[in-house]
Write a structure and sequence with these properties.
The structure is a single chain. By secondary structure, the chain is an all-alpha fold. The protein has three helices and no strands. The chain has one domain.
């Protein structure tokens, strides 16, 4: 048996939830559950992007931090 609880939401949040429902009968529980899954997946992708950025940082510095490029900036 699933326990139920009451959550208080601002009316503007409820209105936004109504706007993003995929179908009229969709429950807020279902909608918020899908939002949580999407948020978790987004965080994972963001962590992967940060990892890639970190490992590429040194090479990018080598490629972009050079005298030839700086000469073009002042031409």
């Amino acid at each position: 048996m699933n326990d139920k609880t009451t959550v208080q939401l601002d009316s503007d949040v409820v209105n936004k939830l109504k706007e993003v429902k995929e179908y009229p009968e969709q429950t807020y529980n279902n909608l918020i559950g899908k939002m949580i899954v999407a948020f978790e997946e987004s965080k994972k992708r963001n962590q992967y992007d940060k990892y890639l950025h970190h490992i590429q940082k040194q090479k990018m510095k080598e490629l972009w931090d050079n005298k030839e490029d700086e000469a073009w900036e002042h031409a």
